[in-house]
Amino acid sequence: RINAEDPWNDYLPSPGRLTRFRLPQGPDVRIDSYGYVGCAIPERFDSLLANLLVKGDDRQMCLSRLSRALMEFRIVGVRTNLALHKQIIQAPAFVAGTYDTSFMARFRFDVGANTSEEVCHDLAAITAVTYLLRRRVGSTVVPERMKTGWHRSARRLPS
Questions:
Q1: 3-state secondary structure labels for all residues of the chain
Q2: CB-side exposure of 12: number of CA atoms within 13 Å?
Q3: 2-139 CATH
Q4: For residue 123, how far is the Cα from the chain centroid?
Q5: Residues 38/21, Cβ–Cβ less than 8 Å
Q6: Which residues is 50 bridged to in the sheet?
Q7: Alpha carbons 54 and 89: distance in angstroms, whole number
Q8: Which one, of 17, 54, 52, lies nearest residue 36 by Cα?
Q9: Are 62 and 42 spatial neighbours (Cβ–Cβ below 8 Å)?
């Protein structure tokens, strides 16, 4: 269950508008979802954004497909529990299949994983676009000799 909630803040709802929503694809990956770019997620709502199901010949194959599918998700505009799911499927007890109903009470997730991968990708893209736009416009640095009013107002003599 991929939910619009913040697992690092007592699972509080995360209202907002989906500005990016890309679902994973691949063999034996099934997604049930209603989300789309521009979709408004209200404050009072069922937090479910998508159900992710994977199928494989054995547990290891399922975990591999699940890991890949979680990495392919791109949801921007609301906080989700994607980072939490990524950590859970890497926990030794979960990988070994030796967990029980008290797993989540004992599980210590990395709060530092709060910055989602999709946010990092978007920040990198914004940085690249900003850099290219500044290069196109040209430098806004004023030469030292042109910083006084005297120099800015002076006429240039022909060479």
A1: CEECEECCCCCEECCEECCEEECCCCCCEEEEECCCCCCEECCCCCCEEEEEEECCCCHHHHHHHHHHHHHHCEEECCCCCHHHHHHHCCCHHHHHCCCCCCHHHHCCCCHHHHCCHHHHHHHHHHHHHHHHHHHHHCCCCCCHHHCCHHHHHCCCCCC
A2: 7
A3: 3.30.470.20
A4: 10
A5: no
A6: 2, 33
A7: 13
A8: 17
A9: no
Identify whether the C-beta of residue 92 lies closer than 8 Å to the C-beta of residue 71.
Answer: no
Token representation of residue 151: 């120099």
* Domain range list for the chain: 2-139
Counting every residue, how long is the chain?
159
Lookup: tokens for 33: 């979802």
**pTM of this prediction exceeds 0.70:** no
| pLDDT mean for each 10 residues of the chain (159 residues) | 90 92 94 94 87 96 96 93 92 89 79 60 80 71 63 61
